[in-house]
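Risk mitigation, structural track. In case the binding assays with pyridoxal-5'-phosphate fail to produce interpretable data, a predicted complex structure has been prepared as a fallback.
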Amino acid sequence: MTAPLSAADRPVPPGSELDDQITEVHRRYAEVHPRSAAEHVRAKAVMPGGNTRSVLHFDPFPFRVIGGEGSDLHDLDGHRYVDFCGNYSAGLLGHSPDRVRDAVIEALADGWALGATHLRETELAEEISERFASIDQVRFTNSGTEANLMAIGTALHHSNKDKVGVFDHAYHGGVLSFGDPGSGSHHPLNVPYAFHVAVFDDIGGLDRLFAEPDLGCVVVEAVQGAGGCRPASPEFLSELRHRCDDRQVVLIFDEVMTSRLSFGGAQERYGVIPDMTTLGKYLGGGMTFGAFGGRRDIMAAFDPATGGSLTQAGTFNNNVVSMAAALATIRYELDSPTIDAINKRGDDLIRALDDVFTAADLPLWVTGAGSMLCIHAADTRLLELLFHAALSDGLYLARRGYMALSKSITDDHCERLVRCLEAWSKVIRR
Ligand code: PLP
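Fallback model:
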């Protein structure tokens, strides 16, 4: 193993400005990742950008991972990283948890591409509907994106309207991604629904949203995850609930990430129960997973026995591997004390990192709730330097400063991150 050098041990050359410092950290990174560099060149020939999941790219090139155990990732060049990114919140259990591995191996023994209904999907649906107050009935998908697409379609069908309320900076999937309100900066790959993009956590802005005559549903994250770990106020969520009730608009909570914030999800934490909920990420135990569910009368649209007119296709919706991994996760890995402990650790880390940046008088700050947190910077170049400083100390965050703590992250790991960034904040020049 090559021991990664500490950022504090490697001060940048005197007199260099931020851009020079970035050039220097990229050079050093490339120096100690020669095999990943070669693999990046190879991958770029056959995949644009050298990957098939855009968020995984960072400059000068991402390391190639070869494995993960517990809190750690290992790369092709022999480095080890404590994983604070947690697969963008899909890795809540840490890497390669035994019970999930065992459940998948056991399931495989009975065959996996069965093309028929089986017992595990019912068991999983029971677990999910017991856990999340808004879910009487549920259906599975293969991703959070798909879960949101299905939930929106179902909600519009139920309300018989065609407008979808969403909020600025929200990310509900690769085809449901929203920039600033009124800027027209919708993601070019977005699906062509009639969206109204309102301002997140702005009660005043709800007047305009609810003035839309064709508003059929509103999709919201109680804490925007990819949007920067921005929590909504409980008042905003209650007001949204209230207005949706008044107008009979279907309220959808995207809990693909936020369901990790308490045993019963953000809806339990904030005491606001939506009509529909979408799930994904960690609940699938690291396998491909998504789910959408909600009130029985809304979900009845999929029931042929009661004349429901919707069908939900999807060859792999009930795939045995995901069902088995999700069942093991929800049954054995995530009881209430475990979830609370991870979230408390996250709340402590938010405070500790914020204190470091304040003490250093750096234009960096931390937002989040529980185990979802994000470092923000007034100048993204600072974030680039911070990201590489952590990486060179063997600490892996998402490039954009996002972190999703897993069960395997300990207080000692958090302390290491705080000390690393404290040391870095003393040597950084801007
Ligand atoms: N919803 C939220 C809140 C997410 O954070 C994401 C992914 O980051 C999605 C939906 C999409 O999930 P998936 O990547 O599984 O399609």
